[in-house]
Amino acid sequence: MRTLKRWQLATGLLLVASLGAGSSIAASTCEAPVAVQVLGSGGPEAQQERASAGYLLWLEGKARVLVDLGGGSFARYGASSARFADLDLIALTHLHADHATDLPALLKSGYFSPRSRALPIAGPTGGGDYPDLESYLQGLLAAQTGAFGYLAGYLDGSDGLVRLERHTLEADSQEPIPVLETDDYRVSAIGVTHGPVPALAYRIDVGDQRIVFSGDLNGDDPWFVDFARDADLLIMDHAVPEQAGAIAARLHALPSEIAEIAKTAGVKHLVLSHLMRRSERALDDSLARIRAVYPGALSVASDLDCFGLEPRGR
After folding, report:
1. Which of 29, 153, 183, 293 has a CA 20 to 30 Å removed from the CA of 248?
2. For residue 94, what are the contacts with CB-CB under 8 A and spacing of at least 6?
3. Which residue ranges does the record assign to the Metallo-beta-lactamase domain (predicted)?
């Protein structure tokens, strides 16, 4: 009996400790008029402090654009205090699990939102083993056959759900593709090379401020440099070290390539995200390589970080 009581006491203490540790992921709202918040700074591995890829654009205290929503990012989305009703766009760079898995969870949460307007969602064309955006959404949401068919109302706006306004974007495009334009900002996309995976990068122009999300790319696309030119903030995926093998380098940009892209594009602030254990182990080496080439501001993302932007000229 004493052993049992000691075990119960120890378990209770562990529970309290774990709850206390969990408080490090606290509610966090970006307060700058224009800001990007990192929901997930990790990749496809299970990492204690990093959810998979996800980002929010905040304008005047409202989360307006969601870029990717990989595993764990939905919980960070909740911690961010973002509201489903405020979103103007969901932009998926590609359909790997670490960039799109939490989409059904977000859509389920929308059932409890007062939102009444359609929700635009953008994603790539398909190829090889990868469906296009429309096929992906049908596989998730189609009545009878979809994995989450009870959410089929998102396809046509029925059952009290808002309609997903689908935009399938050409992943082979080397020219910017207009995605969304509002009174406050413009969103465009461009195709990037991520091995055999159809993939997109996104750019958001808010007045004279420019934000670019690379998504996963291997650094072989000169048109991406033009796409990112003069960016105030470039969120660049850093998944591999300089010594990466051929397969990994076919999928992801090396640190030296990241540095050249940021330097050539004249990026003002480079943020490294999508870190994996292999890139974290070599992070000091990678940062040294990047700083040797790229003269601008350099940051390493953590979950729920906010990066505020100031209008140019201030």
Report:
1. 293
2. 100, 123, 124, 130, 171, 194, 197, 198, 199, 200, 215, 216
3. 51-274
Report the distance separating Cα 6 and Cα 80, nearest Å: 38
**What is the per-residue pLDDT across 82-134, written as a single tens digit (0 to 9) for each?**
999 999 999 999 999 999 999 999 999 999 999 999 999 999 999 999 999 99
In terms of residue numbers, what domain contains 105? 29-309
Asked, for residue 213, whether it belongs to a domain, the answer is yes
Which residues are within 8 A (CB) of 208 and not within 5 positions of it... i.e. 6 or more apart? Answer: 311, 312
Percent helix, strand and coil across the chain, each to the nearest 5: 30, 30, 40
Nearest Cα neighbor of 184 from 220, 166, 211 is 211
Residue 19 lies in a domain: no
* Tens digits of residue pLDDT in 2-43: 443 433 434 344 433 333 334 344 456 688 999 999 999 999
How many domains does one find in the chain?
1
Pairing, β 209-213 against β 233-237:
parallel
Q: Residue 144 is part of a domain; what is its CATH number?
A: 3.60.15.10
Distance CA 297, CA 270 (A): 6
